[in-house]
Specification:
Layout (H helix, E strand, L loop, with lengths): L1 E7 L5 H14 L6 E7 L5 E7 L21 E3 L9 E5 L10 H8 L9 H8 L1 H11 L6 E5 H6 L1 H11 L4 E5 L9 E3 L2 H11 L5 E6 L4 E8 L5 E2 L3 E5 L6 H6 L3 E4 L6 H17 L5 E8 L5 E7 L9 H8 L4 H19 L1
Parallel strand pairs: 1-2, 1-5
Antiparallel strand pairs: 2-3, 3-4, 6-9, 7-8, 7-9, 10-11, 10-12, 10-14, 12-13, 14-15
Bound molecules: adenosine-5'-triphosphate (ATP) and magnesium ion (MG) (3 copies).
Amino acid sequence: MKIVLLYGGRSAEHDVSILSAFSVLNAIYYDYYQVQLVFITKDGKWVKGPLLTEKPKNDSVLKLTWDTEDATGEIISPSTIKEENAVVFPLLHGPNGEDGTIQGFLETIDMPYIGAGVLTSACGMDKIMTKYILQAAGIPQVPYVPVLKNLWKENPKQIFEQCEGTLLYPMFVKPANMGSSVGISKAENREELQNALQEAYKYDTRAIVEQGIEAREIEVAILGNEDVRTTLAGEIVKDVAFYDYNSKYIDNQIVMQIPAEVTEDVQQKAQEFAKKAYVMLGGSGLSRCDFFLTNKNELFLNELNTMPGFTQYSMYPSLWEKMGLKYGDLIEELIQLALKRYEQRQ
Ligand code: ATP
Ligand code: MG
Ligand code: MG
Ligand code: MG
């Protein structure tokens, strides 16, 4: 069977996807699978790479170029990836990859693929939609105000008043559709709130302002289609004001504590909320559910990432590893879940 590995992508999380892709190439079971590399450039071109039948010696195999003299890939039309006996692994993070767009395309060309479907991807990526759905499900979350760019432009004063009437400083301002903390800032006053909104609108016309809280951050990994399994929560132990892009990928300022040192009750609640959120959002394949935990042991669900960071050392695979599911076996399970969902829809 062939695995079509889609990586890179037209999003601010392009580089993160390449890291995840290399880990997958190192661990996939080549006795059963061949891997067709398909790189998506930052400007959205699809480049066909080599067909791998064994573990590559280094990551140079991923560095496809198409616009230089030593170009190593061929630009293809996306729909030409369609073939029988193949499963797509859309290992893409953020908009244009994790948000239902690629998933819709794969549905249209009728190929099985790993991870969440269209609806779950779109709602999970959009922080405003996620909040509405979790609210309906009665899952605790921090107070928030959705702020659409048009309304902000029309009447910024009204937006300030709405935020300040509902929330206290510090506030967290985020583009609704993004990941890896791109475009997120903390605002301590009105001036910072204004700058933070401007920053968020660089990435999306939809932004969300949230109540900033002092809290530990714990995460639960979820795996399955109808049969949903969760791991114990792990903690992101951080030495920084917030878990921003630099601390995630550049400075290595964080430590993962697995399992998190929390009470039995918190562990249970985190798993329960994660599972409920996943079911309410119609999840399949995988997701990583992120929480805030205050020093009063209050738990708030922050978000569900439908294609979490997937290097061998990322939180999602590490949580499963701790539960006894090795990285290579995890990939195998994801392939089987993709096939099952595909067969059920036929
Ligand atoms: P991911 O890489 O997990 O997809 P993301 O870009 O979707 O991240 P969030 O997880 O919502 O963004 O926020 C990024 C980080 O910002 C959090 O891990 C946390 O450190 C901080 N943060 C976000 N919202 C709040 C909040 N309301 N109060 C305090 N800190 C927050
Ligand atoms: Mg996220
Ligand atoms: Mg994310
Ligand atoms: Mg997060």
